[in-house]
Design a protein that fits this description.
single chain, alpha+beta, four-stranded antiparallel β-sheet, elongated
Amino acid sequence: MRLPLLLISLLGYVCYLSSATALTYKLHAHEIACFFAHAQEKGLKLAFYFAVQSGGSFDIDFSVVGPDQLTIILEGTKERQGDYVFTAKQPGEYRFCFNNDMSTFAEKMVDFEISVENESKAASLPSKQGTSPEQTSALEESILKVSRDLSTIHRNQKYFRTRENRNMSTVKSTESRIFNFSVMESLLMISMAGLQVFIVRFFFQGARKGYV
């Protein structure tokens, strides 16, 4: 019973060290959308990931502004996706903005995740009576390694999901173009056939047989 309780305590400790927000947002044309993350103290790690899933050329403008609303920490134009980590130099609310002002009518579907991580370890880790510090430390390292591996798998899943969505959008666009061109070609062939019939009938009408 002691080992499962210790594992649960360590899992809760790891979850306490980080907080994350993952969202999907539809950005309309000429829209600017901002989201906020609060860093309680100086030195915390803020991770910012985004990927444009659909719309236009799969690009977006973005910026990250510090708590003073003046310092631009990160910015980019016409980016398809990004994965950034920076250290909070001062406590407060950090603003993460997406700008779709470049699009005249295209809507953009953006997946993004904002997480605040505390890398500092607590002075006293949760433990049960009868467990040695070495055992607690080993379990803690194992839990942290599992957490990092899960985070990596999660990022890889997002990457492949983004590629799948973009490829599917390309396939649908190509299919639509092929269909439109096929319809235009069919209408052109029907028009050409009708024009040929009209010309032949025109030359072979009663009063104009002498022109042949």
